[in-house]
Amino acid sequence: MKTTIYLNDWFYNSGIVGFLRILEYNQDDFAEIHENYICFETSQLKNFHKYYFKYFFDKYNIGLKTKERLEKSFGIIENYLKKETQDKQETKKLQENLKLEKKNVKDFIKRQLDKIKRYDEEIYINMLDAYNKIDKLQTVDNIEEMHDIKEILVEEIQKDTINKRLTLNLFKSILSKGYFGQQSFLNVVKNALTFEEQEEIMYKDYISNIIETDFMEEILQDKYGIEDLKKIIKEKLEDKLISKEVLQIYSNILKKYIEKNKTIEEIKEYIYKKVLSHCYMCENDEALTGNYSEGNFIPLAVSSDNMKNFFWNQNAEFPICDICKLILFCIPVGISTISKTTKENVNGQVVYREKEINSFVNYDTSVEELLRTNNYLSQISAKDRSVYNPYEDLILNIVDQEKNISEWQLENIFIVEFETEYLAFSRIEYFNIKRYIAKFFIDYSKKTLSLIKDYRYKIQLMDYILKNKDIKFIINNRLREELTKDIRSGFNTFIATKIRLILNLLKKEDMGMDERIKKNNAKLNVLYNLGVSIHEELKAKNEDNKIDGYTYKMLNSIKSGNKKEFMDIVIRIHMSMGKDISPIFLEVMQDTDLDFESIGHSFVSGLISNKYEK
Question: What pTM did the predictor assign?
Protein backbone atom coordinates (compact mmCIF):
# COMPACT_ATOMS: atom_id res chain seq x y z
CA MET A 1 0.00 0.00 0.00
CA LYS A 2 1.32 3.43 -0.90
CA THR A 3 1.28 5.96 1.92
CA THR A 4 1.69 9.73 1.73
CA ILE A 5 3.23 11.76 4.55
CA TYR A 6 2.68 15.52 4.41
CA LEU A 7 4.68 18.25 6.12
CA ASN A 8 3.09 19.17 9.43
CA ASP A 9 4.19 20.80 12.70
CA TRP A 10 7.90 21.27 13.41
CA PHE A 11 8.36 18.08 15.46
CA TYR A 12 6.64 15.98 12.80
CA ASN A 13 8.77 17.62 10.11
CA SER A 14 11.91 16.84 12.09
CA GLY A 15 10.78 13.20 12.06
CA ILE A 16 10.40 13.34 8.26
CA VAL A 17 13.93 14.78 7.97
CA GLY A 18 15.20 12.01 10.27
CA PHE A 19 13.38 9.33 8.26
CA LEU A 20 14.96 10.56 5.01
CA ARG A 21 18.41 10.80 6.61
CA ILE A 22 18.21 7.18 7.76
CA LEU A 23 17.26 6.05 4.25
CA GLU A 24 20.06 8.11 2.72
CA TYR A 25 22.61 6.76 5.20
CA ASN A 26 21.61 3.20 4.32
CA GLN A 27 21.67 4.01 0.60
CA ASP A 28 18.01 3.21 0.07
CA ASP A 29 15.87 5.80 -1.73
CA PHE A 30 12.47 4.10 -1.71
CA ALA A 31 10.78 7.31 -0.48
CA GLU A 32 9.71 9.70 -3.22
CA ILE A 33 10.22 13.36 -2.29
CA HIS A 34 7.62 15.83 -3.56
CA GLU A 35 6.97 19.51 -2.89
CA ASN A 36 5.24 19.19 0.49
CA TYR A 37 5.10 15.45 1.06
CA ILE A 38 6.93 12.15 0.75
CA CYS A 39 5.40 8.83 -0.31
CA PHE A 40 6.43 5.18 -0.44
CA GLU A 41 5.14 1.63 -0.46
CA THR A 42 4.76 0.56 3.17
CA SER A 43 6.01 -2.95 2.28
CA GLN A 44 9.45 -1.37 1.80
CA LEU A 45 9.66 -0.67 5.53
CA LYS A 46 10.47 -4.30 6.31
CA ASN A 47 14.17 -3.56 6.83
CA PHE A 48 13.78 -0.11 8.35
CA HIS A 49 14.45 -1.36 11.90
CA LYS A 50 17.86 -2.60 10.71
CA TYR A 51 18.51 0.76 9.02
CA TYR A 52 17.62 2.54 12.27
CA PHE A 53 19.96 0.44 14.39
CA LYS A 54 22.79 0.70 11.84
CA TYR A 55 22.51 4.50 11.78
CA PHE A 56 22.84 4.82 15.56
CA PHE A 57 25.42 2.04 15.88
CA ASP A 58 27.71 3.76 13.38
CA LYS A 59 27.15 7.15 14.98
CA TYR A 60 28.05 6.01 18.52
CA ASN A 61 30.36 3.07 17.71
CA ILE A 62 32.22 2.55 21.02
CA GLY A 63 34.86 0.28 19.46
CA LEU A 64 35.76 2.81 16.78
CA LYS A 65 35.76 5.79 19.14
CA THR A 66 37.91 3.82 21.62
CA LYS A 67 40.38 3.00 18.84
CA GLU A 68 40.62 6.67 17.83
CA ARG A 69 41.11 7.77 21.44
CA LEU A 70 43.76 5.12 22.18
CA GLU A 71 45.69 5.85 18.98
CA LYS A 72 45.82 9.53 19.91
CA SER A 73 46.78 8.93 23.56
CA PHE A 74 49.38 6.22 22.87
CA GLY A 75 50.80 8.47 20.14
CA ILE A 76 51.35 11.16 22.79
CA ILE A 77 52.92 8.59 25.14
CA GLU A 78 55.23 7.41 22.34
CA ASN A 79 56.41 10.98 21.72
CA TYR A 80 57.20 11.38 25.42
CA LEU A 81 59.12 8.06 25.47
CA LYS A 82 61.18 9.05 22.42
CA LYS A 83 62.01 12.53 23.61
CA GLU A 84 65.52 12.93 25.00
CA THR A 85 66.91 15.78 27.06
CA GLN A 86 69.86 16.41 29.36
CA ASP A 87 68.12 19.15 31.26
CA LYS A 88 66.92 17.96 34.68
CA GLN A 89 63.95 20.30 34.74
CA GLU A 90 62.92 19.18 31.24
CA THR A 91 63.31 15.53 32.27
CA LYS A 92 61.15 16.07 35.34
CA LYS A 93 58.47 17.86 33.30
CA LEU A 94 58.59 15.08 30.71
CA GLN A 95 58.06 12.41 33.37
CA GLU A 96 55.15 14.33 34.86
CA ASN A 97 53.48 14.67 31.45
CA LEU A 98 54.05 10.97 30.72
CA LYS A 99 52.53 10.00 34.05
CA LEU A 100 49.52 12.25 33.47
CA GLU A 101 48.84 10.88 29.96
CA LYS A 102 49.11 7.27 31.21
CA LYS A 103 46.62 8.14 33.95
CA ASN A 104 44.23 9.65 31.37
CA VAL A 105 44.43 6.49 29.24
CA LYS A 106 43.89 4.22 32.23
CA ASP A 107 40.90 6.25 33.45
CA PHE A 108 39.36 6.03 29.99
CA ILE A 109 39.87 2.25 29.73
CA LYS A 110 38.71 1.69 33.32
CA ARG A 111 35.31 3.21 32.51
CA GLN A 112 34.83 0.64 29.75
CA LEU A 113 36.21 -2.25 31.84
CA ASP A 114 33.60 -1.66 34.52
CA LYS A 115 30.88 -2.21 31.88
CA ILE A 116 32.60 -5.09 30.06
CA LYS A 117 32.96 -7.13 33.26
CA ARG A 118 29.17 -7.56 33.38
CA TYR A 119 28.98 -9.07 29.88
CA ASP A 120 32.13 -11.01 28.93
CA GLU A 121 34.62 -12.31 31.49
CA GLU A 122 37.20 -13.44 28.92
CA ILE A 123 37.40 -10.07 27.15
CA TYR A 124 37.50 -8.36 30.53
CA ILE A 125 40.49 -10.44 31.69
CA ASN A 126 42.41 -9.86 28.43
CA MET A 127 41.86 -6.11 28.57
CA LEU A 128 42.62 -5.93 32.30
CA ASP A 129 45.95 -7.66 31.71
CA ALA A 130 46.88 -5.09 29.04
CA TYR A 131 45.57 -2.27 31.25
CA ASN A 132 47.86 -3.28 34.15
CA LYS A 133 50.94 -3.07 31.90
CA ILE A 134 50.46 0.60 31.00
CA ASP A 135 52.31 1.86 34.10
CA LYS A 136 55.41 -0.10 33.02
CA LEU A 137 55.88 2.08 29.93
CA GLN A 138 58.86 4.10 31.11
CA THR A 139 61.50 4.27 28.36
CA VAL A 140 61.94 4.16 24.58
CA ASP A 141 62.63 0.42 24.92
CA ASN A 142 58.96 -0.06 25.90
CA ILE A 143 57.52 1.30 22.64
CA GLU A 144 57.06 -2.12 21.04
CA GLU A 145 55.30 -3.37 24.18
CA MET A 146 53.12 -0.24 24.09
CA HIS A 147 51.98 -1.09 20.55
CA ASP A 148 51.10 -4.62 21.71
CA ILE A 149 49.05 -3.21 24.61
CA LYS A 150 47.19 -0.86 22.30
CA GLU A 151 46.53 -3.64 19.77
CA ILE A 152 45.07 -5.95 22.44
CA LEU A 153 42.83 -3.25 23.88
CA VAL A 154 41.52 -2.18 20.46
CA GLU A 155 41.04 -5.74 19.22
CA GLU A 156 39.13 -6.86 22.30
CA ILE A 157 36.76 -3.90 22.56
CA GLN A 158 35.94 -4.10 18.84
CA LYS A 159 34.68 -7.67 19.14
CA ASP A 160 31.00 -7.81 18.24
CA THR A 161 29.89 -9.39 21.50
CA ILE A 162 31.08 -6.34 23.44
CA ASN A 163 31.09 -3.49 20.93
CA LYS A 164 27.48 -4.04 19.88
CA ARG A 165 26.26 -4.26 23.44
CA LEU A 166 28.15 -1.21 24.72
CA THR A 167 27.17 0.90 21.72
CA LEU A 168 23.55 -0.24 21.89
CA ASN A 169 23.32 0.64 25.59
CA LEU A 170 24.81 4.07 24.86
CA PHE A 171 22.40 5.10 22.13
CA LYS A 172 19.46 3.53 23.98
CA SER A 173 20.29 5.72 26.96
CA ILE A 174 20.42 8.84 24.75
CA LEU A 175 17.09 8.05 23.07
CA SER A 176 15.44 7.15 26.36
CA LYS A 177 16.54 10.19 28.38
CA GLY A 178 15.94 12.83 25.74
CA TYR A 179 13.11 11.58 23.54
CA PHE A 180 11.04 8.47 24.35
CA GLY A 181 11.44 7.25 27.92
CA GLN A 182 11.20 3.49 28.49
CA GLN A 183 9.35 2.55 25.31
CA SER A 184 9.85 -0.69 23.39
CA PHE A 185 13.48 -1.89 23.29
CA LEU A 186 14.54 1.26 25.19
CA ASN A 187 13.17 -0.26 28.38
CA VAL A 188 16.04 -1.26 30.66
CA VAL A 189 14.56 -4.72 31.15
CA LYS A 190 15.49 -5.44 27.50
CA ASN A 191 19.20 -4.80 28.12
CA ALA A 192 19.93 -8.50 28.54
CA LEU A 193 18.76 -9.24 24.98
CA THR A 194 21.16 -9.33 22.05
CA PHE A 195 21.55 -6.55 19.49
CA GLU A 196 19.55 -8.55 16.93
CA GLU A 197 16.79 -9.42 19.41
CA GLN A 198 16.32 -5.75 20.25
CA GLU A 199 16.19 -4.96 16.53
CA GLU A 200 13.29 -7.39 16.28
CA ILE A 201 11.50 -5.68 19.18
CA MET A 202 11.65 -2.41 17.26
CA TYR A 203 10.20 -4.15 14.20
CA LYS A 204 7.39 -5.60 16.27
CA ASP A 205 6.56 -2.31 18.02
CA TYR A 206 7.06 0.22 15.21
CA ILE A 207 6.85 -1.50 11.80
CA SER A 208 4.85 -4.72 12.08
CA ASN A 209 1.48 -2.95 12.47
CA ILE A 210 2.14 -0.89 9.33
CA ILE A 211 2.82 -4.05 7.33
CA GLU A 212 -0.21 -5.80 8.77
CA THR A 213 -2.44 -2.83 7.95
CA ASP A 214 -1.61 -3.54 4.30
CA PHE A 215 -3.01 -7.05 4.74
CA MET A 216 -6.20 -5.67 6.30
CA GLU A 217 -6.57 -3.26 3.39
CA GLU A 218 -6.29 -6.23 1.03
CA ILE A 219 -9.12 -7.96 2.94
CA LEU A 220 -11.22 -4.81 2.49
CA GLN A 221 -10.45 -4.90 -1.23
CA ASP A 222 -11.79 -8.49 -1.50
CA LYS A 223 -8.45 -10.01 -2.43
CA TYR A 224 -9.04 -13.20 -0.40
CA GLY A 225 -11.71 -15.82 -0.15
CA ILE A 226 -12.67 -17.32 3.21
CA GLU A 227 -10.42 -20.38 2.87
CA ASP A 228 -7.38 -18.38 1.77
CA LEU A 229 -7.99 -15.91 4.55
CA LYS A 230 -8.25 -18.71 7.11
CA LYS A 231 -4.95 -20.22 5.98
CA ILE A 232 -3.08 -16.88 6.02
CA ILE A 233 -4.43 -15.86 9.43
CA LYS A 234 -3.43 -19.19 10.98
CA GLU A 235 0.10 -18.65 9.67
CA LYS A 236 0.17 -15.12 11.02
CA LEU A 237 -0.94 -16.28 14.47
CA GLU A 238 2.34 -18.22 14.65
CA ASP A 239 4.43 -15.19 13.69
CA LYS A 240 6.36 -13.93 16.74
CA LEU A 241 7.11 -10.57 15.09
CA ILE A 242 3.47 -9.47 15.00
CA SER A 243 2.26 -7.28 17.87
CA LYS A 244 -0.13 -8.60 20.52
CA GLU A 245 -2.73 -6.05 19.44
CA VAL A 246 -2.80 -7.35 15.85
CA LEU A 247 -2.62 -10.99 16.92
CA GLN A 248 -5.77 -10.37 18.97
CA ILE A 249 -7.47 -8.89 15.89
CA TYR A 250 -6.53 -11.95 13.80
CA SER A 251 -7.67 -14.27 16.59
CA ASN A 252 -11.06 -12.49 16.66
CA ILE A 253 -11.43 -12.78 12.88
CA LEU A 254 -10.63 -16.49 13.03
CA LYS A 255 -12.73 -17.47 16.06
CA LYS A 256 -15.65 -15.04 15.88
CA TYR A 257 -16.10 -14.86 12.13
CA ILE A 258 -14.38 -17.54 10.02
CA GLU A 259 -14.99 -20.48 12.39
CA LYS A 260 -18.59 -19.31 12.86
CA ASN A 261 -19.16 -19.20 9.11
CA LYS A 262 -19.49 -15.45 8.89
CA THR A 263 -19.17 -13.79 5.49
CA ILE A 264 -16.33 -11.68 4.11
CA GLU A 265 -18.66 -8.68 4.26
CA GLU A 266 -19.13 -9.19 8.01
CA ILE A 267 -15.35 -9.46 8.48
CA LYS A 268 -14.91 -6.23 6.49
CA GLU A 269 -17.51 -4.51 8.65
CA TYR A 270 -15.63 -5.62 11.79
CA ILE A 271 -12.36 -4.20 10.42
CA TYR A 272 -14.02 -0.94 9.38
CA LYS A 273 -15.90 -0.33 12.61
CA LYS A 274 -13.82 -2.00 15.32
CA VAL A 275 -10.21 -2.14 14.06
CA LEU A 276 -9.30 0.82 11.87
CA SER A 277 -9.83 4.36 13.10
CA HIS A 278 -8.97 8.01 12.45
CA CYS A 279 -5.46 9.34 13.10
CA TYR A 280 -5.60 12.81 14.66
CA MET A 281 -2.07 13.66 13.53
CA CYS A 282 -2.04 12.83 9.81
CA GLU A 283 -5.82 12.62 9.27
CA ASN A 284 -5.63 9.05 7.92
CA ASP A 285 -9.09 7.49 8.33
CA GLU A 286 -8.08 3.84 7.91
CA ALA A 287 -5.29 3.06 10.33
CA LEU A 288 -4.41 1.10 13.43
CA THR A 289 -4.01 3.70 16.14
CA GLY A 290 -2.66 4.09 19.64
CA ASN A 291 -2.95 6.95 22.09
CA TYR A 292 -0.36 9.73 21.79
CA SER A 293 1.66 9.88 25.00
CA GLU A 294 5.10 10.75 26.37
CA GLY A 295 6.53 7.62 24.81
CA ASN A 296 5.98 9.18 21.38
CA PHE A 297 7.98 12.35 22.12
CA ILE A 298 8.75 13.40 25.70
CA PRO A 299 9.15 17.17 25.16
CA LEU A 300 5.59 17.54 23.81
CA ALA A 301 3.59 14.96 25.73
CA VAL A 302 2.60 13.72 29.16
CA SER A 303 1.79 10.32 30.55
CA SER A 304 -1.84 10.77 29.51
CA ASP A 305 -3.14 7.57 31.13
CA ASN A 306 -1.84 8.75 34.51
CA MET A 307 -2.90 12.40 34.12
CA LYS A 308 -6.50 12.24 32.92
CA ASN A 309 -7.50 14.92 35.43
CA PHE A 310 -5.48 17.40 33.34
CA PHE A 311 -7.79 16.84 30.34
CA TRP A 312 -11.27 18.18 29.64
CA ASN A 313 -13.84 15.68 30.89
CA GLN A 314 -10.85 13.42 31.63
CA ASN A 315 -10.71 12.55 27.94
CA ALA A 316 -7.02 11.90 27.27
CA GLU A 317 -7.62 10.23 23.91
CA PHE A 318 -5.51 11.43 20.99
CA PRO A 319 -5.17 8.50 18.57
CA ILE A 320 -2.19 8.44 16.19
CA CYS A 321 -1.43 5.83 13.55
CA ASP A 322 1.64 3.61 13.36
CA ILE A 323 3.09 5.58 10.44
CA CYS A 324 3.06 8.74 12.59
CA LYS A 325 4.48 6.75 15.51
CA LEU A 326 7.41 5.65 13.30
CA ILE A 327 7.99 9.16 11.93
CA LEU A 328 8.13 10.56 15.49
CA PHE A 329 10.61 7.82 16.40
CA CYS A 330 12.94 9.31 13.77
CA ILE A 331 13.00 12.76 15.42
CA PRO A 332 16.44 12.26 17.08
CA VAL A 333 17.97 11.80 13.61
CA GLY A 334 16.28 14.93 12.24
CA ILE A 335 17.48 17.12 15.10
CA SER A 336 20.85 18.94 15.18
CA THR A 337 22.86 19.36 18.35
CA ILE A 338 24.33 22.83 18.78
CA SER A 339 26.46 24.36 21.48
CA LYS A 340 25.14 27.32 23.47
CA THR A 341 27.29 29.46 25.73
CA THR A 342 25.85 30.44 29.09
CA LYS A 343 27.40 32.95 31.49
CA GLU A 344 27.47 32.02 35.17
CA ASN A 345 28.84 33.66 38.28
CA VAL A 346 30.94 31.16 40.26
CA ASN A 347 32.46 32.45 43.51
CA GLY A 348 32.47 36.00 42.18
CA GLN A 349 34.12 34.97 38.91
CA VAL A 350 32.43 35.11 35.53
CA VAL A 351 32.51 31.61 34.01
CA TYR A 352 31.33 30.68 30.51
CA ARG A 353 29.95 27.19 30.10
CA GLU A 354 28.95 25.41 26.92
CA LYS A 355 25.94 23.12 26.90
CA GLU A 356 24.42 20.95 24.20
CA ILE A 357 21.00 22.02 22.89
CA ASN A 358 18.76 20.21 20.42
CA SER A 359 17.75 22.42 17.52
CA PHE A 360 15.55 22.23 14.42
CA VAL A 361 14.81 24.77 11.70
CA ASN A 362 11.25 24.57 10.38
CA TYR A 363 11.42 26.23 6.98
CA ASP A 364 8.01 26.77 5.39
CA THR A 365 8.92 25.83 1.83
CA SER A 366 9.43 22.31 0.46
CA VAL A 367 10.62 18.96 1.78
CA GLU A 368 13.85 19.34 -0.23
CA GLU A 369 14.55 22.80 1.20
CA LEU A 370 13.69 21.67 4.74
CA LEU A 371 16.10 18.76 4.39
CA ARG A 372 18.86 20.90 2.85
CA THR A 373 18.55 23.60 5.52
CA ASN A 374 18.72 21.18 8.44
CA ASN A 375 21.53 19.17 6.83
CA TYR A 376 23.53 22.38 6.60
CA LEU A 377 22.76 23.18 10.26
CA SER A 378 24.07 19.73 11.24
CA GLN A 379 27.24 20.21 9.19
CA ILE A 380 28.13 23.59 10.66
CA SER A 381 27.19 22.44 14.19
CA ALA A 382 29.87 19.74 13.88
CA LYS A 383 32.58 22.26 12.92
CA ASP A 384 35.04 24.00 15.22
CA ARG A 385 32.78 25.84 17.64
CA SER A 386 35.41 28.46 18.39
CA VAL A 387 35.01 29.71 14.82
CA TYR A 388 31.48 28.96 13.65
CA ASN A 389 28.14 30.29 14.84
CA PRO A 390 25.52 27.80 13.57
CA TYR A 391 22.57 30.19 13.27
CA GLU A 392 24.55 33.00 11.69
CA ASP A 393 26.13 30.64 9.16
CA LEU A 394 22.77 28.98 8.50
CA ILE A 395 20.93 32.23 7.77
CA LEU A 396 23.76 33.64 5.67
CA ASN A 397 23.92 30.35 3.76
CA ILE A 398 20.19 30.57 2.99
CA VAL A 399 20.70 34.15 1.77
CA ASP A 400 23.67 33.07 -0.39
CA GLN A 401 21.87 30.02 -1.81
CA GLU A 402 18.79 31.99 -2.77
CA LYS A 403 20.05 35.30 -4.14
CA ASN A 404 16.53 36.66 -4.56
CA ILE A 405 15.27 35.51 -1.19
CA SER A 406 12.70 37.87 0.26
CA GLU A 407 12.38 39.14 3.79
CA TRP A 408 9.02 37.33 3.86
CA GLN A 409 10.77 34.00 3.18
CA LEU A 410 13.28 34.60 5.98
CA GLU A 411 10.41 35.50 8.31
CA ASN A 412 9.04 31.99 7.71
CA ILE A 413 12.11 30.36 9.22
CA PHE A 414 10.98 28.99 12.56
CA ILE A 415 13.71 27.84 14.97
CA VAL A 416 13.12 25.46 17.86
CA GLU A 417 15.50 24.67 20.70
CA PHE A 418 14.77 22.09 23.37
CA GLU A 419 16.34 20.25 26.27
CA THR A 420 14.74 17.23 27.90
CA GLU A 421 15.54 14.64 30.49
CA TYR A 422 13.09 11.82 31.11
CA LEU A 423 11.27 12.15 34.46
CA ALA A 424 13.15 15.39 35.18
CA PHE A 425 12.39 18.37 32.94
CA SER A 426 11.52 19.65 29.47
CA ARG A 427 12.35 23.08 28.10
CA ILE A 428 11.30 24.20 24.62
CA GLU A 429 11.99 27.61 23.14
CA TYR A 430 10.59 28.84 19.83
CA PHE A 431 11.58 31.89 17.84
CA ASN A 432 11.18 33.13 14.30
CA ILE A 433 12.92 35.91 12.38
CA LYS A 434 11.16 39.27 12.51
CA ARG A 435 10.95 41.31 9.32
CA TYR A 436 13.52 43.92 10.40
CA ILE A 437 15.90 41.14 11.55
CA ALA A 438 15.48 39.43 8.17
CA LYS A 439 16.47 42.69 6.44
CA PHE A 440 19.45 43.02 8.77
CA PHE A 441 20.75 39.57 7.78
CA ILE A 442 20.18 40.16 4.08
CA ASP A 443 21.74 43.64 3.88
CA TYR A 444 23.95 44.30 6.90
CA SER A 445 25.15 41.21 8.80
CA LYS A 446 28.23 40.53 6.67
CA LYS A 447 29.49 44.08 7.28
CA THR A 448 28.92 43.91 11.03
CA LEU A 449 28.18 40.61 12.77
CA SER A 450 30.70 38.67 10.68
CA LEU A 451 33.47 41.03 11.85
CA ILE A 452 33.11 39.89 15.48
CA LYS A 453 35.76 37.24 16.08
CA ASP A 454 34.90 36.28 19.66
CA TYR A 455 32.77 33.14 19.24
CA ARG A 456 31.08 33.27 22.65
CA TYR A 457 30.20 36.94 22.30
CA LYS A 458 28.79 36.35 18.82
CA ILE A 459 26.68 33.44 20.15
CA GLN A 460 25.25 35.75 22.85
CA LEU A 461 24.49 38.48 20.32
CA MET A 462 22.82 36.04 17.90
CA ASP A 463 20.74 34.60 20.72
CA TYR A 464 19.48 38.05 21.74
CA ILE A 465 18.90 39.22 18.15
CA LEU A 466 16.90 36.16 17.10
CA LYS A 467 14.82 36.34 20.29
CA ASN A 468 14.16 40.06 19.77
CA LYS A 469 15.94 41.13 22.96
CA ASP A 470 17.82 44.40 23.42
CA ILE A 471 21.56 43.73 23.16
CA LYS A 472 22.50 46.88 25.12
CA PHE A 473 22.73 44.80 28.31
CA ILE A 474 25.36 42.39 26.97
CA ILE A 475 27.26 45.32 25.42
CA ASN A 476 27.45 47.06 28.81
CA ASN A 477 28.39 43.83 30.60
CA ARG A 478 31.09 43.04 28.03
CA LEU A 479 32.67 46.48 28.46
CA ARG A 480 32.82 45.91 32.22
CA GLU A 481 34.45 42.52 31.68
CA GLU A 482 37.07 44.08 29.40
CA LEU A 483 38.22 46.31 32.26
CA THR A 484 39.22 43.19 34.24
CA LYS A 485 41.56 41.97 31.49
CA ASP A 486 45.21 42.73 30.94
CA ILE A 487 44.70 43.06 27.19
CA ARG A 488 41.52 44.95 26.46
CA SER A 489 39.43 45.17 23.33
CA GLY A 490 36.56 47.53 22.64
CA PHE A 491 36.26 46.71 18.94
CA ASN A 492 33.77 43.85 19.38
CA THR A 493 31.49 45.96 21.58
CA PHE A 494 31.71 48.82 19.09
CA ILE A 495 30.56 46.52 16.27
CA ALA A 496 27.76 45.26 18.57
CA THR A 497 26.74 48.88 19.20
CA LYS A 498 26.52 49.51 15.45
CA ILE A 499 24.43 46.33 15.09
CA ARG A 500 22.04 47.60 17.75
CA LEU A 501 21.73 50.98 16.02
CA ILE A 502 20.96 49.29 12.68
CA LEU A 503 18.35 47.00 14.26
CA ASN A 504 16.65 49.90 16.05
CA LEU A 505 16.44 51.95 12.86
CA LEU A 506 15.23 49.00 10.75
CA LYS A 507 12.54 48.31 13.34
CA LYS A 508 10.94 51.67 12.47
CA GLU A 509 10.44 50.53 8.82
CA ASP A 510 10.61 54.12 7.55
CA MET A 511 11.51 55.22 4.01
CA GLY A 512 15.14 56.07 3.21
CA MET A 513 16.41 54.02 6.11
CA ASP A 514 19.60 52.82 4.35
CA GLU A 515 20.85 56.40 4.03
CA ARG A 516 20.02 57.18 7.66
CA ILE A 517 21.88 54.05 8.81
CA LYS A 518 24.94 55.07 6.77
CA LYS A 519 24.86 58.61 8.18
CA ASN A 520 24.51 57.51 11.81
CA ASN A 521 27.13 54.78 11.50
CA ALA A 522 29.56 57.49 10.42
CA LYS A 523 28.76 59.43 13.62
CA LEU A 524 29.41 56.35 15.76
CA ASN A 525 32.76 55.90 13.98
CA VAL A 526 33.69 59.46 14.97
CA LEU A 527 32.76 58.79 18.61
CA TYR A 528 34.73 55.53 18.67
CA ASN A 529 37.81 57.13 17.11
CA LEU A 530 37.56 60.06 19.53
CA GLY A 531 37.66 57.58 22.42
CA VAL A 532 40.70 55.85 20.91
CA SER A 533 42.43 59.24 20.45
CA ILE A 534 41.83 60.20 24.11
CA HIS A 535 43.13 56.77 25.19
CA GLU A 536 46.37 57.33 23.25
CA GLU A 537 46.85 60.85 24.64
CA LEU A 538 46.34 59.69 28.23
CA LYS A 539 48.74 56.84 27.57
CA ALA A 540 51.37 59.23 26.19
CA LYS A 541 51.08 61.33 29.38
CA ASN A 542 51.28 58.20 31.59
CA GLU A 543 47.78 58.98 32.80
CA ASP A 544 46.09 55.88 31.34
CA ASN A 545 45.44 54.67 34.91
CA LYS A 546 42.54 57.16 34.94
CA ILE A 547 40.74 55.32 32.15
CA ASP A 548 39.21 52.65 34.41
CA GLY A 549 37.65 55.21 36.72
CA TYR A 550 36.20 57.23 33.86
CA THR A 551 34.90 54.09 32.16
CA TYR A 552 33.14 52.60 35.19
CA LYS A 553 31.40 55.93 35.91
CA MET A 554 30.28 56.33 32.31
CA LEU A 555 29.00 52.73 32.13
CA ASN A 556 26.96 53.32 35.30
CA SER A 557 25.48 56.52 33.87
CA ILE A 558 24.65 54.74 30.56
CA LYS A 559 22.99 51.87 32.42
CA SER A 560 20.87 54.26 34.51
CA GLY A 561 20.13 56.55 31.53
CA ASN A 562 21.74 59.57 33.22
CA LYS A 563 22.85 61.78 30.29
CA LYS A 564 23.86 64.70 32.54
CA GLU A 565 26.29 62.60 34.56
CA PHE A 566 27.74 61.10 31.38
CA MET A 567 28.36 64.53 29.85
CA ASP A 568 29.89 65.79 33.12
CA ILE A 569 32.47 62.98 32.90
CA VAL A 570 33.14 63.73 29.21
CA ILE A 571 33.67 67.45 30.03
CA ARG A 572 35.96 66.52 32.95
CA ILE A 573 38.08 64.29 30.68
CA HIS A 574 38.46 67.05 28.07
CA MET A 575 39.26 69.71 30.69
CA SER A 576 41.93 67.54 32.35
CA MET A 577 43.60 67.23 28.96
CA GLY A 578 43.26 70.95 28.16
CA LYS A 579 41.00 70.23 25.17
CA ASP A 580 37.77 71.78 23.95
CA ILE A 581 34.67 69.59 24.05
CA SER A 582 34.29 67.83 20.73
CA PRO A 583 31.25 69.21 18.86
CA ILE A 584 30.23 65.63 17.95
CA PHE A 585 28.77 65.22 21.45
CA LEU A 586 26.53 68.25 21.09
CA GLU A 587 25.42 67.04 17.66
CA VAL A 588 24.63 63.46 18.55
CA MET A 589 22.86 64.28 21.79
CA GLN A 590 20.30 66.22 19.74
CA ASP A 591 19.98 63.51 17.04
CA THR A 592 16.64 61.70 17.18
CA ASP A 593 18.01 58.58 15.42
CA LEU A 594 20.89 58.08 17.86
CA ASP A 595 19.92 56.81 21.30
CA PHE A 596 21.97 57.56 24.40
CA GLU A 597 23.22 53.97 24.80
CA SER A 598 24.67 53.88 21.27
CA ILE A 599 26.46 57.20 21.80
CA GLY A 600 27.88 56.19 25.18
CA HIS A 601 28.90 52.64 24.27
CA SER A 602 30.65 53.80 21.08
CA PHE A 603 32.75 56.36 22.95
CA VAL A 604 33.56 53.99 25.83
CA SER A 605 34.49 51.19 23.37
CA GLY A 606 37.05 53.53 21.84
CA LEU A 607 38.26 54.79 25.21
CA ILE A 608 39.40 51.31 26.32
CA SER A 609 40.90 50.43 22.92
CA ASN A 610 44.37 50.78 21.49
CA LYS A 611 44.98 52.83 18.33
CA TYR A 612 45.76 49.88 16.05
CA GLU A 613 43.23 47.41 17.41
CA LYS A 614 40.92 45.71 14.89
Answer: 0.82
